[in-house]
Amino acid sequence: MTASREKITTLTGFRSSFQEHWALAYLPFMDSALGPLYQNYLYTQADHARKNRLPGFLSTAYDPKGVYRQMGIPAIACNPVDRSDVGVFFATAMGMLISPVVGASWLSEFYQFNDFVTPYGALESVGRDGYADIFTADAKGMTLLAASGGVVEESIKYMQERSVPKKQISMYVKMIELLHAKFKQMLVERNHEPMYLPTQPYPAPTEDTFEVKILPLADPGPVYNVSDHLQSGHLHGKNVRSVGLPTLEQDVAPGKPFAFEYEIPAYFEYFDQWAFRGTYIDRAVSISDMRYLSVTIPTRSDPASFEIELKSDGITLAAAVIDTTKPGILSEDGQYKTLVHTLEPIPEASYKPFNYIGVALHDPRYLLSKSGAHDRKGTIHLQNISLSKSEISSGAAAVAQQGPEEFEVFRFWRPTHGGLPFHKNEAKSLLHFAGGKGWRGGYIPYTNLSKFNYLYLRVRNTEEGCNCFYIELKHEGDPLIHQFKIPIHVPPDRKWHVFEIAIPEGIQKTFNYFALSDPYAPFDLGAILLSQIPVAIPSIEPVALPETGKKPLECAYRPCVSNET
């Protein structure tokens, strides 16, 4: 029902997102009997935008908080939508694929917002609560494609010049026949109910759109029951399936258990040696003040060790490793136990909302405990998941599992950047680096460096003589421990040496990148360890942070400088 009280007929969508009609840029839908339904779809988007004083149309995209949301028009969506109050730039541009004039008239509305269209292109979306702080390739590409009319003419030319195999009919004619057949099929499903078309012109942009006021993240309150906000409709998983079924099905629902079976085949490629199941949260909230994670599982759960990841899309804000064999708080009937873990969200949680939960089972070779048969195959059943700012019960603090005192960075570091030659010795679990100018770096899981006090490196020379190389701990491109590279001087022997670097207090950014560079000679790296307490082994060699900047070619000319003093 439109604002002018007319009934119109259009296409029902999964979330009624313009993203669902990307094919308009490639195929001649508007030349077929389906054309009026697409025109009505654009009419519906414009009608909704005008009624809600939006500058444009809706699509699944990043919302004004920078969170990936399932956005669409609730009245014509098969599934619940997250938001319907956001103008999405590329969705509005897609309107030009149905009506160039209508789409362009709405698209120009975004230019009234200061700094929305930047020298690098437009932002993703705008709403009353702010601007999306993200650029995406599909948004840029689809906007340009829609503004140029797509490649429909090229597709038509291609199909007109080719015939359907074994038939004397062009591909274009066959395509139109298929679209007409789809239209007839839809009429039959509707029992030939009439198709309603509007008599009024397309709704024009409103004379006054909303005012943008940057709002803080939503406060979830003292307790946030994650299970009550699990969003269905997402088949996100790897090496998992629904319980008792051969495939992964739509079995996630708010207020229901989060359960799945997993199997990690040992013969898969290295980067496939893990499993996960995840889904979005229907209400994105701040978890920066959350300090406890409570997970309720059946008392007779399979022995398993898995990680619960609380994310803002791809960024892990907080995580906890759950060991199902640990004791917990028993339910009254003894059927369930609740495991409580302390949480330390990363600094980015102060402005990045929690909107995604994942359950990951890591490569069994890298588990902290001894690997068992259950590490590759079993069932995970989470009856309830909740977050709290304080203990949820009088007994929770007593059984709360603390975060690990150590984190072996080496197990998760992938040195994929840089040109310094190296190879991995799988049998001995070490990396061998060649000597010479160059560097190697790579990402690690987002790690809250402020919770650790020491960094340890286990290194040995593979040739006679002294050695020296530099290391850097970074958040993206920003150094964290020291503003300069830290030189590691290795004594002239082929023994393993453990170097200790004290981590200063007050680090605000998250550690997510490790790099080393310019080794004087070849060496082996056997460990990169973060620890809360000093490691109790003999012959630890402290590393003093440089008082000044990187000395010119220090590792090239003075690899034994630490021993000379």
State the CATH topology of the largest domain.
Jelly Rolls
In whole angstroms, the N-to-C terminal distance is 84 Å
* SS class: alpha+beta
Tally the beta strands. 32
Topology:
Blueprint: H1 35-51, E1 61-62, E2 68-69, E3 86-88, H2 89-94, H3 100-107, E4 117-118, E5 121-122, E6 125-127, E7 130-131, H4 137-147, H5 152-160, H6 171-189, E8 223-225, E9 236-238, E10 240-241, E11 258-263, E12 275-285, E13 292-298, E14 305-312, E15 315-323, E16 329-330, E17 336-342, E18 354-361, E19 377-382, E20 384-388, H7 396-399, E21 406-408, E22 422-425, E23 430-433, E24 439-447, E25 454-461, E26 467-475, E27 478-479, E28 486-490, E29 497-502, E30 511-517, E31 523-531, E32 540-542, H8 554-557, H9 561-564
Parallel strand pairs: 29-32
Antiparallel strand pairs: 1-2, 3-6, 4-5, 6-7, 8-20, 9-12, 10-11, 11-19, 12-18, 13-17, 13-20, 14-15, 14-18, 16-17, 21-31, 22-23, 23-31, 24-30, 25-29, 25-31, 26-27, 26-28, 26-30
